[in-house]
Amino acid sequence: MAENITHRPKQHQQQTQSHQVVKAATAATAGGSLLVLAGLITAATVIGLTIATPLLVIFSPVLVPAAIAVFLLFSGFLAAGGFGVAALTVLSWIYRYVTGKHPPGADRIDEVRQKMAGKAKEMREKAEQFGQQHASGGPQGF
Prior knowledge:
This protein is mainly alpha-helical. About 90% of the residues lie in helices and about 0% in strands.
């Protein structure tokens, strides 16, 4: 039994070493394959551009305005969709706030509302004082 216990760490070390060799071989194979694939794609891109460049030069008076129109159309639809999503999000937040479901940021809105109400009350009191001063014949200009 003592031989069996001393033999296990070597076996575990050999398994770990062989496992690392398999990992390295797999990584090298995958990396090499991807590197070859990247080279092939680069070559195909260069060949495609070489063939397409004369066609792009010949058709550029048509393609450039068409590309601009497609870009503007795509941008318009994207902006409209974004604004639509934003509007639905805001309406959903307002609905949850009004129905009392306490959406995120509702505490901050309540704080700001209370501050504004306090400032409005303060300004009303100052306006009443100013009106009373002028009504009682206080300092007048001109």
